[in-house]
Every structure is written in structure tokens, then in C-alpha cells.
Amino acid sequence: MKDFFEGIEWLFENILFYPLDALRSLELDSWFLANILNWIFVIVGFLAFLYWMKQLKTFNDRNEENRESTSHSFLG
Length: 76
Hints:
Radius of gyration: 24 Å
Helix content: over 70%
Distance between the termini: 63 Å
């Protein structure tokens, strides 16, 4: 079993984490490029937020939401 877990360790340290190690070593040269993965997550989150707001406006313009006091106790 020890060889099995050492194999998993080797896989993660030498292959799967290699791109993150490369980004870490890039930090001394360019901070922006070293954090490119974070910037991608921020952009994707912002685009998802804009899409969500657009969908909410679409449903609000069509009056598809039931706004009677019986549908939600906090609306009445």
C-alpha cells in the first residue's frame, strides 16, 4: 500500500501541480501573469453575475413572478 500512495504523491507533485509550480516561479518576473488563473476566475464570475442580472430583468419585465402575499409571507 505504501507504493500505491507514493505513486499518487508522485503523480500530483511531478505532473498535476507542474503548471501551478510554473506560475509560482513566474511571480518574480510578472505578478499579473503569475495570477492569471485568479484573473480568469474573476472574469468568469463577473460574466456569470451579468448574465444572472440580465435573466432577473427579463423575468421581472414579463411579470412571471408571483408577487401575491400568499406566495411569500415577507412580500405582504
